[in-house]
Amino acid sequence: MPDPKQPDPEQIADALKVVEDEVTKSFDRLTQVTDTVAKMRLEFFDRVVLLDGGTITLSVTLLGFWASKDAHVPMHWRELLILSWISFVFSMLFALARNWVEHDRLSATEVYNAVYQAFSAIIKFSQAVPGPLANKLVENEAARLKRKIKEEESLLRWTKSTGIASLIAMLAGFVLLLMFAAKNVFTIGG
Fold it and tell me: Does an H or E element contain 110, and which?
């Protein structure tokens, strides 16, 4: 007669199968989301590069137009133009950093979800097969889950900070460029 305190081998096998299936589903989902996030990062960076780079290009074109109109007309507030270009370059760099960190954050979130699902599966396993081994597994997974949550929170702060910095730099670039253009359009045009 089997010992009632000893878990049934079939019960252990069934519990392990459930754990394995849930972990596999988690990591399949992780791969799919990571691929989607990588595409989003490229699209966002393309848009920022086009906007900031296009604005710099248009401002250079404006300078060429003014120079062709009358090469002897002095440019006013050149420093604003240079500062606007620097702002646009910083905007591009911050956008790149934001996308990089956001990609890492979303990936970390998916890893967190996978770890959470694995943790849930281990809890189910520990309920099916109670004992010190199961308790140790639950403790280890709980600690791992807490680390992943802290990592995700840290990356979220970085994502927000770099995103805001990118937008502020872009806005500053537009304001400086508009001030430069307004001063010089009215001077050259008038």
Answer: helix 78-128
Looking at residue 189, its pLDDT comes to 54
- CA–chain centroid gap for 54, Å, is 24
Report which of 190, 117, 113 is spatially closest to residue 149, judged by C-alpha positions: 113
Most distant CA atoms of the chain, gap in Å: 106
Domain 9-69+76-185 has CATH 3.40.1620: no
Q: pTM of this prediction?
A: 0.63
| Number of Cβ within a 10 Å radius of residue 165 | 17
Which 3 state secondary structure label does DSSP give 131?
coil
Nearest to 124 by CA among 114, 134, 132, 133: 134
In Å, how far from its chain's centre is CA 73?
Answer: 46
The per-residue pLDDT for range 84-135, each reduced to its tens digit, is: 999 999 999 998 888 888 777 777 777 777 777 777 777 777 766 667 776 7
